[in-house]
Backbone:
């Protein structure tokens, strides 16, 4: 009380231009640092009940800043909560933020807030020039302000970062779709878009692949590499694969040496030439395929999962046949589980109300017993990237798969959408027997909830493409 | 006429390993070499490191007979990392230059050898005789489930439920991987119709598999046991491995269920060994059954093939109580060669090779009580033994076996392209 009484005239002095020389002399006498402290005390202070903290300030270069924090404001004293850019322009955090539960904060300040209030927040604030330092200003209704500087770090791992951010978002949040559309989605996409330096790549070819292959089978390997031997056993005696190039993309440094060794063995034994493109860094499903496509020479490109196994010879010509029609861009195949259950028979887009009506991909026919093949070519909204054939030049012209989707989801449909925009449809054939030995282990993996949320983010991104926002 | 050159492979050499498949392969080899229009070589897998030379997987047994040292896993029978083995094997193929390579097995040898043959000698005909159900069944190829019940059909799901240390996906891969090598075989031989039906229902196209008899034994025939006037035909024998699938337990239980009067006049001799390769629980049960058995039951231990005639000379009936399907059991051929009727389980290869009421008797598989009834009948029915013994048809000689195989080899034309993978 006494202190504020004493400081009141001093504060008044600092606002008067005629007193500047005096104030400056005082500052010089006190030393700059202490003067700054002193000056601070001169500004009106925020009400003590207005507490706030930023847990994280993350820069998304070229896009904006992502904040995670909390604010206790029982007296509703907040007037403004902003980012102040270097050039003085102001962007509001409080006009955009999404409030979320923070039980830890309520526990740390018992009695300072009603417990049913969402005291946490996340906010993505678009700012075109993001520096290393971010100034955040809180203004109380009475005009008192507080300005703090924060170091804005660029997250090194998008995946890890997404786990932190998404842990603040409840799947039951009524504004879920908006949270993704305004905050998590743009920030994650902005981070994912950043191109890392190209990975170190080693390419080895075992045997002599055909000079001008009709198709390249492009097969990413991650984790397991023994599938090479099974696929080779099933490719070796298929005469319709003679003019085909097989390219394995290994983007898992743990298995590169073993995969190379098995490729050599398999070539010597099965006599199917194999090209291995090895990246010392994991590139994700889209990245691995795009890398492989840059080394492919086939007229056609067939994206194939390593756990897709033919059940009979002659499957490839049937898969490529529809591409004789120039209006068809992508061909997928009916895939079966090992017990004959349909694993994949094309995908359809369907508005999903819980996610604000964003289109999700549904799998008609999945889980049913495989009926006898009709031999018909059926148009689909999308087909799975586990097995899709197209013309290589068209794939390349479209820039391949979009690498900004996280964890391999929706990018196959994304590609189909972009083909369709160029007038090329996606179709499905059912007269080939291919097994997809997809393991159900993903449901046993940790972070299931996080995976769901990532799926939602991917779904939002995909919806943007559908709207025509991006090509 | 140019001689047909045949290279026969088996997972063992009968000098060192006495299994039925090794014997069948070896007799065919011997039979082919009695002919002027054929020449045969025999390669048996060497299981003994002590017989191995440095720097080569081969060691010579005698003229045209080799041992080949190799090893495989027991799920897919692959020895994929054995690049040197393939090279050495290819060298043997190039030296012998056979017209026909006849596999009698792939376990331990490596299923990849089929492709080494195809790679090295594109025009050689590849023939394979199957002796059990390993290509279909991961439970020791017995088509018996781990809970002891009989298996009628394999599938990735059913196999996973039987042995869940492998996933359904693993079973699919196993089947298609083995299937890809089976696709290189020009023709399969089944020693029984039963085995043929099991394979043609799953991994082998029917037109690519023929039933041909294995060659039976040779040498002096054990004459019928001389019995006094009115003496019953009451001597039974079991000859085989002590495994949970051979039914020794059923037989021991059956003897203990015989009426006391029959027991005291009957004899049961059990020849065999090998229980120590099997689970402790099985060994324990077997020890207890032997301990509690009637004094007329004798555990005679292992026997050499040379003793067979001597053993049979002292017996009337051969019992084959296997609880798995069997294929073409050697012991049935041996019993028939020496004129002994067989009492066997009523399933699979046993039921096929023994005709109930003609050259032997069937009992419901696994039923000790039913086997006891048959044994009682065998002892107490006058004239039954003579009638069944006279119903026995002669077994196939190695010469006849060679004849039928050579006819098969010559009917096969080298195929330009193997097309179907059966999955």
Residues:
């Amino acid at each position: 009380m006494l202190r504020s009484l004493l400081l009141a005239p001093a504060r008044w002095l600092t606002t008067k231009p005629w007193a500047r020389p005096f104030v400056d002399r005082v500052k010089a006498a006190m030393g700059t640092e202490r003067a700054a402290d002193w000056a601070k005390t001169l500004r009106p202070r925020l009400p003590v009940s207005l507490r706030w903290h930023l847990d994280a300030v993350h820069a998304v270069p070229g896009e904006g800043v992502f904040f995670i924090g909390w604010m206790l404001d029982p007296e509703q004293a907040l007037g403004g909560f902003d980012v102040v850019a270097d050039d003085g322009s102001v962007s509001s955090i409080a006009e955009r933020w999404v409030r979320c539960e923070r039980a830890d904060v309520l526990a740390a300040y018992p009695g300072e807030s009603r417990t049913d209030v969402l005291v946490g927040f996340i906010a993505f604030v678009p700012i075109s020039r993001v520096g290393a330092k971010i100034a955040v200003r809180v203004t109380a209704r009475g005009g008192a302000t507080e300005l703090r500087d924060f170091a804005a770090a660029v997250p090194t791992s998008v995946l890890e970062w997404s786990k932190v951010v998404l842990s603040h978002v409840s799947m039951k949040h009524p504004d879920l779709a908006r949270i993704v559309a305004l905050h998590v989605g743009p920030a994650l996409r902005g981070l994912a878009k950043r191109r890392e330096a190209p990975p170190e790549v080693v390419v080895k070819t075992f045997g002599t692949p055909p000079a001008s292959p009709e198709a390249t089978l492009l097969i990413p390997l991650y984790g397991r590499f023994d599938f090479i031997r099974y696929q080779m056993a099933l490719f070796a005696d298929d005469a319709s694969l003679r003019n085909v190039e097989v390219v394995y993309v290994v983007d898992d440094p743990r298995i590169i040496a073993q995969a190379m060794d098995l490729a050599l063995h398999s070539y010597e034994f099965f006599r199917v030439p194999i090209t291995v493109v090895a990246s010392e860094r994991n590139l994700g499903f889209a990245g691995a395929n795009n890398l492989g496509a840059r080394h492919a020479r086939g007229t056609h490109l067939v994206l194939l999962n390593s756990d897709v196994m033919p059940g009979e010879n002659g499957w490839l010509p049937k898969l490529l046949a529809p591409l004789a029609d120039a209006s068809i861009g992508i061909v997928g195949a009916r895939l079966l589980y090992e017990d004959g259950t349909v694993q994949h028979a094309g995908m359809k887009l369907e508005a999903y109300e819980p996610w604000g009506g964003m289109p999700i991909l549904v799998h008609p026919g999945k889980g049913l017993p495989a009926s006898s093949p009709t031999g018909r070519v059926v148009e689909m909204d999308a087909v799975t990237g586990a097995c899709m054939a197209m013309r290589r030049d068209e794939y390349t012209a479209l820039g391949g798969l979009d690498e900004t989707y996280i964890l391999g989801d929706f990018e196959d449909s994304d590609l189909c959408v972009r083909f369709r925009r160029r007038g090329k449809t996606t179709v499905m054939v059912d007269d080939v027997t291919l097994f997809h030995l997809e393991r159900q282990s993903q449901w046993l993996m940790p972070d299931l909830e996080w995976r769901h949320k990532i799926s939602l983010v991917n779904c939002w991104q995909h919806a943007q493409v559908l709207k025509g926002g991006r090509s | 006429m140019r001689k047909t050159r045949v290279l026969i492979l088996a997972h063992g050499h009968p000098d060192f390993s006495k299994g039925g498949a090794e014997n069948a392969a070896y007799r065919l080899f011997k039979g082919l070499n009695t002919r002027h229009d054929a020449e045969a070589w025999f390669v048996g897998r060497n299981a003994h490191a002590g017989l191995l030379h440095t720097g080569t997987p081969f060691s010579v047994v005698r003229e045209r007979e080799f041992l080949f040292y190799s090893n495989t896993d027991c799920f897919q029978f692959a020895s994929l990392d054995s690049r040197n083995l393939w090279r050495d094997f290819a060298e043997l193929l190039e030296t012998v230059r056979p017209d026909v390579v006849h596999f009698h097995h792939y376990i331990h040898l490596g299923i990849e050898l089929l492709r080494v043959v195809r790679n090295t000698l594109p025009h050689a005909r590849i023939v394979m005789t199957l002796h059990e159900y390993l290509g279909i069944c991961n439970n020791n190829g017995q088509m018996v489930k781990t809970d002891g019940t009989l298996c009628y059909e394999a599938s990735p799901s059913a196999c996973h439920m039987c042995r869940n240390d492998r996933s359904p996906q693993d079973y699919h891969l196993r089947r298609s991987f083995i299937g890809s090598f089976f696709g290189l075989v020009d023709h399969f031989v089944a020693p029984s119709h039963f085995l043929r039906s099991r394979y043609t229902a799953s991994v082998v196209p029917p037109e690519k598999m023929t039933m041909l008899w294995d060659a039976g034994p040779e040498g002096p025939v054990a004459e019928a046991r001389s019995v006094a006037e009115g003496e019953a035909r009451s001597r039974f024998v079991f000859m085989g491995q002590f495994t949970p699938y051979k039914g020794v337990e059923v037989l021991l239980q059956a003897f203990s269920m015989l009426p006391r009067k029959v027991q005291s006049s009957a004899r049961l001799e059990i020849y065999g060994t090998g229980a120590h390769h099997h689970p402790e629980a099985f060994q324990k049960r077997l020890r207890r059954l032997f301990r509690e058995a009637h004094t007329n039951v004798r555990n005679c231990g292992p026997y050499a093939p040379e003793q067979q005639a001597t053993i049979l000379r002292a017996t009337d009936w051969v019992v084959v109580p296997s609880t798995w399907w069997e294929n073409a059991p050697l012991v049935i051929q041996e019993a028939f060669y020496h004129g002994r009727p067989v009492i066997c389980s009523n399933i699979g290869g046993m039921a096929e090779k023994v005709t109930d009421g003609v050259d032997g008797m069937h009992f419901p598989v696994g039923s000790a009580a039913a086997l006891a009834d048959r044994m009682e009948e065998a002892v107490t029915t006058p004239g039954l033994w003579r009638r069944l013994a006279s119903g026995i048809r002669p077994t196939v000689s190695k010469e006849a076996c060679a004849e039928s195989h050579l006819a098969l080899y010559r009917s096969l034309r080298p195929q330009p392209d193997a097309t179907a993978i059966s999955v």
In short: Chain A touches chain B at residues 229-230, 233-234, 236-237, 239, 262, 265, 268-271, 307, 309-314, 338-339, 433, 435, 437, 439 (CB under 8 Å). Chain A has 13 helices and 21 strands. The CA atoms of residues 128 and 146 of chain A lie 24 Å apart. Chain A has a mean pLDDT of 88.
